[in-house]
Every structure is written in structure tokens, then in C-alpha cells.
Amino acid sequence: MENTPTKVVQEPADAITREVVDLMAGLVALFHREYEEAAAARSLTGAQAKVLALLRRGPMPMRHIAQTLSCEPSNITGIVDRLEARGFVTRQADPQDRRVKLVAATEAGRSASEELRESLNFAREPLATLAEDERTTLRDLLRRMLEGADPETDPS
Amino acid sequence: MENTPTKVVQEPADAITREVVDLMAGLVALFHREYEEAAAARSLTGAQAKVLALLRRGPMPMRHIAQTLSCEPSNITGIVDRLEARGFVTRQADPQDRRVKLVAATEAGRSASEELRESLNFAREPLATLAEDERTTLRDLLRRMLEGADPETDPS
DNA sequence: CTGAACATTTGACAACGTGAACCTTTCACG
DNA sequence: CGTGAAAGGTTCACGTTGTCAAATGTTCAG
């Protein structure tokens, strides 16, 4: 109990970095609230909305969903159950490997997800306060921060 | 079902804004994961850690906690119960208004929260890829986006 | 063919979160 | 005053997320 469990070596973190981290925290909180709210407006939970969003690129094995969301596969079972019960996704066996089940969004699922995405006017008010070139700068900075780190937003 | 439920009037959202929103989503996911992980490493849940973080500025009525976290007050009861059971917070009656219960972090609570905050090396790797002046720019942009919007990160 | 590894499911359990009902306290108003 | 409405917390019932451990079915290497 007397030494920090996971990380030990860590630079002191300068003032700017620290402040950026705090600002991020605020942004994250804001975003999270809005996302959850937008999902709820379509009687989806945040987790369901996330899964649905993942499936926009096509069917996906549950294992992959679990990995992307960094949670246990057994958790996905329940979420997909509920989405399936409402007709937003289907489970189909993968012909290549009969162990895996491919989850695919139905038309209803796709459009619900798309609608939600469109309604995400998060950061639209906040972003509106920035000039165009500032937004570009922000985009570039965020891009650089995220490159190689994030599987979810990978546009491939 | 044929018209969007909540929002109707909404500008088309230019490409840059849209991309920034997507990048934010990635960042949010990343941050969220790390936060939850860092909390878990101290056997706290995310919600408990958030409450504890709120109390760093001093005791606070439960009602206020609920408002800041935008959730129902009844939810806070349980979270504070669990924090209290572990000796991280105490409940004390507000002398001004005996309906109110002020939640205060104990020394253990404060240090746990501080430790967690320090360990949040989120964005330290991501941020490390940015030069100092870029970090400053990022900070300024984020500040402007959040000003007037976010009660949680208010540095007062 | 056998056993290890893998994908999913099931079941038990804890935490979060909501909504409604309830108790106590406060406060405005007659 | 004294009464009733409103506010702060709690409790209860309920559904969703999340974990872990055990089971089932499938694949694949040896």
C-alpha cells in the first residue's frame, strides 16, 4: 500500500500540460453529458449508442466490439441482446468461423445512429466561438495528439 | 417518428467542425478509459472519483454535487454512502440549514483524489508530441471553447 | 484424435442511474 | 402564530453497465 501501484516514473508535468489536462476534463464531461442526453432522446443508452456507432462501418464480431470499447465480451452480449430486441441489430454467424457472431446494424439501427450523430451539436456552440482558422488549428493539434493512439476514430 | 424530436434548427456543420467533433469523440473515449482505469487502480469507481474530485475545493451540499454531475440527488446518496463507508468522506449537517448535509473529504479522501489526479498521465503522451507553443495554443483554444459553459473546471 | 485456445453465453453480483414516495426542515403568507 | 408549499435527503423498486468464473461450441496444431 505504500508505493503507487501502476505508474512510477513520471515527469513533473509542466503547468501548461496540467492546465490542458484540466480543460480536457471539462470538455470530456461536457461531451459525455451531451452524448448521453442525445442518446436518451432516442431512448438509447450511451453504451447502446456507442455500439451502434461502431457498426456504421459494417458488421463486426462481438469480440472486436468488446476490444474497441475496452470491456469484457460478456458485457457486450447483454448490450447486443437489448439492441437486437428492439430491432436495431442482428446477429449472424460468421461463415468463416462458426464461433464468431457478426453483429450488423439493421436499417433502423443505422438511421437511429446517423440521426443521433447529426443531432450531436456538441461543441457546435463552443466551436462557434472560434474563427475558421482557429478551428483548423485545433483540428490539426487534436489530430496529432490522437494519431496512432485511437482505434475508434480511425477513418479507414 | 417522422421529425427529429428535440433539435430542429441546426446549421449544416462545416467539414472542419464535423472533423473536430469526431476528434473530440476519440479524445473523450481515450480520456474516459484512462480516468476509469486510474480510479480502479485505487479501487474507486469513476463516479466516486468524480465526487471526491469535486470536494477538493471544500465541503459541498449533496444537492450541489448532483447538479454539477447532472444526475438525480438520490443517486448521490448511494455514492456518498460508499465513500463514507470507506472513510473518504463525512456527512455533516449544515448549521445554516438543517435540511442540508455537507459532504466533506477526509484526509484519506483528499490524498486519494490528489494521487489519482497526479497519476492521470492521460494526454501526457499525446501532449508530449506537441511543442510548447502548440500546447499553449491548444490551451487557449480550449479555454475559449469552455468559457462560460463549464461549472466543473471553474478554477475559482 | 486430443487438447489447448478462442468466441460467445450464462449466472451471480456490485455500482450507477432514474423515478416515485416519504420525512424533515424552511419559508412565505394569511 | 400556524399552515401549507417547497426544498434537501433518503429509501425503494427497477433497469442497464460492468466484472468475474464457469459452461458450451468451434477451431486448430500436433
Folded structure, characterized:
Two copies of one chain form a homodimer. By secondary structure, chain A is mostly helical. Helix content of chain A is 57%, strand content 8%. Chain A has seven helices and three strands; from the N terminus they run H-H-E-H-H-E-E-H-H-H. Chain A has a three-stranded antiparallel β-sheet with strand order 1-3-2. In chain A, a hairpin with a 7-residue loop joins strand 2 (89-93) and strand 3. In chain A, helix 3 (62-68) crosses helix 4. The longest helix of chain A is centred in the N-terminal third of the chain and has 27 residues, at 15-41. The N and C termini of chain A lie far apart (44 Å). The relative contact order of chain A is 0.11. At the A-B interface, helix 1, helix 5, helix 6 and helix 7 of A face helix 1, helix 5, helix 6 and helix 7 of B. Chain A binds a DNA duplex (30 and 30 nucleotides) through residues 45-48, 61-63, 71-79, 82, 97-101.
Helix/strand/pairing category of chain A: mainly alpha
Oligomer: homodimer
Helix content of chain A: 55-70%
How far is it from the N-terminal to the C-terminal residue of chain A, by CA? 44 Å
**Which band does the percent of strand residues of chain A land in?**
5-15%
Walk across the major sheet of chain A and give the strand order. Answer: 1-3-2
Total of helices of chain A: 7
N-to-C SSE string of chain A, H for helix and E for strand? HHEHHEEHHH
